[in-house]
Amino acid sequence: MLGKILVRYLKPYKWLLLGVLVFQFVSALATFNLPSLNAAIIDNGVAKGDTAYIWSTGSLMLVISLGQITASIIATYFAARAAMKAGRDIRDDVFERVSTFSEREVSVFGPGSLITRNTNDVQQVQMLAMMGGTFLVTAPILAIGGIIMALQQDVGLSWIIAVAVPVLLVVAVLIIGRMVPLFRSYQTKLDNVNRIMREQLTGIRVVRAFVREPIEEERFRGANTDILVVGRKVGSLFVLLFPLFMLILNVTVVGVVWFGAIEVDAGTVQIGTLFAFMQYVMLILTGVLMASFMTMMIPRAAVSAERISEVLDADTSLVRPENPVTELPTPGTVEFADAEFTYPGAQHPVLSGITFSAAPGETVAIVGSTGAGKTTLISLIPRLFDVTGGSVKVNGVDVREADLEHLWSTIGLVPQRPFLFSGTVASNLRFGREEATDEELWHALEIAQGRDFVEEMEGGLDAKISQGGTNVSGGQRQRLAIARAIVHNPGILVFDDSFSALDLTTDARLRQALWRELPQVTKIVVAQRVSTITDADRIVVLDDGGMVGIGTHEQLLESSSTYREIVESQLGVEASA
């Protein structure tokens, strides 16, 4: 999976990778020449007292060293550019893929995990690509080239290399093999930390209201301790790995000096040649060390690549039609035909047998007890979920056959929990339509009964809104969300219990303004308060996922016991009489 990700996202930057290979090869060639020149200075310059030879050869070594440094810097720069561009592309694709998910897929992965996959996991793959562009290219060149050059210097000491390299590899394999499951566990526990942190930040008011700070702190401390334990195990292996590498490296150097001194004493090897052989052995072991270091990064990057691929390869339930319909035969209509919906893994459908319609300009209200399926029902209209049975038609077209962008452009949705983005009042309202003028924004605010409080805010339309709209009240958030939907200029407005935070007077004025200013717009209203929907053209009564009544307020008082109970519980027995 890691190889698939790297090939897919590094392929567009093959010219940068080719540059890495070329300049790393040049750098390696320069590195290989330095020990030979050093040996020549010792044997032909120092031993014979030839100062001119020392200066000329030393100058050549200096030039080669500068060339080696320059080539290495250029290669690293190219590798970094390729890795950063690949990381950018991965994040773009993950974000784009997640944006196509329905609420079903988002709930399966979890928001915290999706954030971690698009940040930390991508960073791991990106880091491997950058380090691999240098180490994975340099390591084999140093190791193979070093062996060839060392054998040219002294074949008699080559057995030391044959012993040191396998020992180094065995140590690396044993330790790295234990790291793989730890890295996978670490990423999972990191997901858990992010999830708990996100929950506590989102629900900070609830936490404080119920004096749950100590309990939540303990909960976070537990998740934090879990990741500490795994991180400490990984760190312990790292701590063990490098001393062992250095031990093997130093023992090898001692072996070269010891047995090389015997050959020097016998007159079979010159001192300069021995020093050159020792430097080549150092290059060989450095190459193996680089490769081992990269193999330590590979397991974690492999786990991250697997998690990224899970997102990229996930099948979304919102399958786009091959030939999407863009022509709308009956704009402003909504029709449910025996619609049914079952959540994945559930034994029973949450909605079944839903059949009703709304004509252009009509108001259809949906009421029912908590858990009756009201929010799920209206989520089927903009295709946040797909029906598992029957059909839902909007503007005369089955939502599964309609072009999604075209479908969404005709629907203005005000969710149950209105969310505002960080920015200004104007930027949030123009989220519905970017080209909207200030006059249109003020008009939408006036309909939504939000003009007064926006005018009182410092800056008016340019007043700052914090993320989630936490610097305004719940009722103000609802009115801004309603105004945003109105600015969208849709043919169908869907309100998911969007008047619950408003007082009765504001609620009444808002509904009157909606009906008066937008008579041609179809309105689907989910409401908890009966007073909000008594003047609706039709009221759909839900109970346990099924329709138990449909009609006007007066008709349902006579025909539906469920609706009559709701009215009596809110308005009293006299209102239902």
Structure in words:
With 577 residues, the protein is an alpha/beta fold. The chain folds into three domains: 2-312, ABC transporter transmembrane region fold, CATH 1.20.1560; 325-410 and 490-577, P-loop containing nucleotide triphosphate hydrolases (Rossmann fold, 3-Layer(aba) Sandwich), CATH 3.40.50; 421-488, no CATH class. The chain has 19 helices and twelve strands. A six-stranded mixed β-sheet has the order 6-9-10-3-11-12. A hairpin with a 2-residue loop joins strand 4 (389-394) and strand 5 (397-398). The protein starts with a helix and ends with a helix.
Helices and strands in order, then pairings?
Blueprint: H1 2-10, H2 14-46, H3 51-99, H4 103-109, H5 111-153, H6 158-202, H7 204-209, H8 213-266, H9 271-312, E1 334-341, E2 351-358, E3 363-368, H10 374-379, E4 389-394, E5 397-398, H11 404-409, E6 411-414, E7 423-424, H12 425-429, H13 438-447, H14 451-456, E8 464-465, H15 474-487, E9 492-496, H16 504-517, E10 522-526, E11 538-543, E12 546-551, H17 553-559, H18 561-571, H19 573-576
In brief, what are we looking at here?
The chain has 577 residues and is α/β, with parallel strands linked by helices.
